[in-house]
Amino acid sequence: MSQLIRTVTLPDGSQVPALGLGTWHMGESRGSAEAEIRALQAGIDCGMTLIDTAEMYASGGAEEITGKAIRGRRDEIFLVSKVLPSNASRQGTIAACEASLKRLGTERIDLYLLHWRGRHPLRDTVEAFEQLRKSGKIGAWGVSNFDSLAMRQVSALPGGENCAANQVLYNLSTRGIEFELMPWLAERSIPVMAYSPLDEGRLLRHPGLGKMAGRLGISPAQLALAFLLARDNVIAIPKSSSPERVKENRASADIALTSEQLAELDQLFPPPRSRQPLEMI
Ligand code: NDP
To answer: With a 6 A CB cut-off, is 222 part of the ligand 1 pocket?
Structure first.
């Protein structure tokens, strides 16, 4: 029997599973909606109860799919959504959140992120996040695609100490954050949410990864995810619209890589040796 998925603790003490579900590209066509809902429900059934979505994805369509997938079981879910930078003014953030709540069919988003930094002053976005938090419409707030400098800037703002997560591009072939950003976040117990953990599927065609996974009797996706799950402060959010692949991804949380296996991955995908600009999709 599979074990429970290990949890990661947010700064406010909430425990969330280290492996969740992405939703980018869901809700783009009516024909695939049923399959997407089934895939998300298969993930929830096997403990992947953190769902990551955004108002941007399919212009709200992914939030609607998510809302349908969690109907009747909202209490099991840790729900993450994001405000677009163009909406992230003092008033715009509140309005965007209310529209997301409607599409999601819920009264609360557990973690609400600024999708990336835009033209609105960060101070205004943080003020709006704090207002949403105090009114209970969100449980916590965080950021996405923030490098170390932007993290320092947000933390220095009034209320900035409440930033609860930074969602960034992180996978075996994109390890730049390990040099500076990850240690900075770990020191402050701010989790990294690793987006595109399979490099949007590209990693799965890497010959070295395929070979090593074959030797271990696991799939390349499982090996790529197990690498991320070996890190304490990381939450991985792979997306799949197939219940079978969701279950395959879920099994990665039961794989404990040895230090030799992690060293072999370092040979295949060398860690950064210097500070790198933050990569994003
Ligand atoms: P992923 O790295 O999760 O890869 C998704 C792709 O891999 C899909 O094509 C999927 O196809 C395929 N896939 C998934 N599991 C398997 C498997 N076991 N075997 C083979 N193929 C597989 O990419 P995403 O960009 O979707 O990132 C994950 C999530 O992170 C997003 O969905 C989104 O929620 C978030 N994100 C956030 C960003 C941000 O700026 N904050 C930017 C990008 C993503 P299929 O569905 O057919 O299985």
So the answer is: no
At 234, the pLDDT band (50, 70, 90 cuts) reads: very high
Q: Which residues contact 13 (CB under 8 A, 6 or more apart)?
A: none
What whole-number distance in Å separates Cα of residue 70 and Cα of residue 75?
Answer: 9
Residue 141 and residue 89: Cα distance in Å, rounded? Answer: 15
SS3 category, 187: helix
Assess whether the C-beta atom of 249 lies below 6 angstroms from ligand 1. Answer: yes
Element of type H or E holding 169: strand 163-169
Local structure of 190: helix, strand or coil: coil
Q: Please report the atom of ligand 1 found closest to the CA of residue 53.
A: 34
The letter for the amino acid at 243 is P
Q: Is 57 a catalytic residue?
A: yes
Atom number of ligand 1 nearest to Cα 25: 32
Cβ 35 under 6 angstroms from ligand 1: no
If one counts every other C-beta atom within 10 angstroms of the C-beta of residue 115, the result is 21
As a whole number of angstroms, the distance between CA 272 and CA 100 comes to 37
Protein residue whose Cα sits closest to atom 11 of ligand 1? 240
pLDDT of residue 1: 42
Q: Which residue has the least CA distance to atom 36 on ligand 1?
A: 195
Contact between residue 33 and residue 63 where contact means Cβ atoms under 8 Å apart: no
Pairing between β-strand 15-17 and β-strand 50-52 as defined by DSSP bridges: unpaired
Structure token pair of residue 7: 């949890």
Q: What is the pLDDT of residues 41-88, one digit of tens each?
A: 999 999 999 999 999 999 999 999 999 999 999 999 999 999 999 999
Write the residue with the smallest CA distance to atom 3 of ligand 1: 238
Q: Please identify which of the residues 57, 112, 170, 195 carries the catalytic annotation.
A: 57
112: left (phi > 0), else alpha (psi -120 to 50), else beta?
beta
